[in-house]
Amino acid sequence: MSNVSDAGNELLRTDPTRKHKHTEQEAGSSDDSHLSWSANHRASAVNSTQQPDGVAFFIIQGLANLGEEKMILFVILLLAYVVILGGNSMIIFTVWTDPKLSSPMYFFLHNLSFVDMVYTTVTVPNMLSGFLTDTKTISVPGCFLQMYFFIQLAVTGRGILTVMAYDRYVAICNPLRYTAIMTRPVRLLLVTGAWVFGGFCTLPATGMAWRRPYCGPNVVRHGWCDPSSVRRLVCADTRADSIVSLSFALVALLTTGVLILGSYVLIGVSISRMGAAQRLKAFGTCAAHLTVVSISYGSASFVYISYRVGNLRPEVRIIVSVLYSALTPFLNPMIYSLKNKELRQSIRGTFCRYRSTAVSPRKQVSAEA
How far apart are CA 365 and CA 369, in angstroms? Predict the structure, then answer.
């Protein structure tokens, strides 16, 4: 088997398309123009240890060029991650322990909280550790596992939001048949479908990226193994990869977006036929979900636009991506707690119940004394 690095060099000499691609990356790419000398030096040092089949591991550049500002971002991101874990864990625990929260809406909500927790855990801890080290490395299998789960969980989260939109449609437009339609097997089937849909939209692009040759450099100019950033390191033509990745991204966004929009159009038609009191109550049942959907798709659109702006610094793009990945999981517990009176009362009751449980042993001890 020939050495992939030699094959990549030979391909560069013989394939004018590949040569043109390298010329564009070196001369025209704004990301490349902002890569520091130290990052290039680290990349060349690591590539000297590459395996016969390609690079041994990747370097995550992250925000290494920010200097002292890194610690401010580290503290902000750490606090946000603690809030994400705490808030979503509280929702999951409250739904599991409070019999009053047994409706399908809370079943889907605690599944969404679980996805949000895992989704942020895939990237944020690695991002935090990158703030504390000069060089953040990740193995090649670990890089592609991170890539897969990051995309898969993002699509799955939107799939669950779509399922929740359908749940609100049934509750408002068919209230008398709601319990007959949203049975436990149907709920499990809908959640399973969201996970399967996430895998279906993620596996082809990730599988193609995994099979590509990587012969150096190995610096990923992002905070984690972002697909477009890793694709720049491929020693081959990646036009097919870009088409497949974009196609399945459009399938994921358009499918979930159209289904959510369709559900709310039907909900709006049904609400328009109700009286004022019923209309207000119906709007209250879907206000939290509609807010979360708006934030989720709005932030995704902002990230897409930021990637199309050529003069943005790589650090700005990374910060925008971090905010996008953490914003919805950060806001979900707050939005549902503020806009859902039943959930808010259950969370307060859970706190009071466990506070009294913790205080009662102390009272017994003092009485015996």
Answer: 6
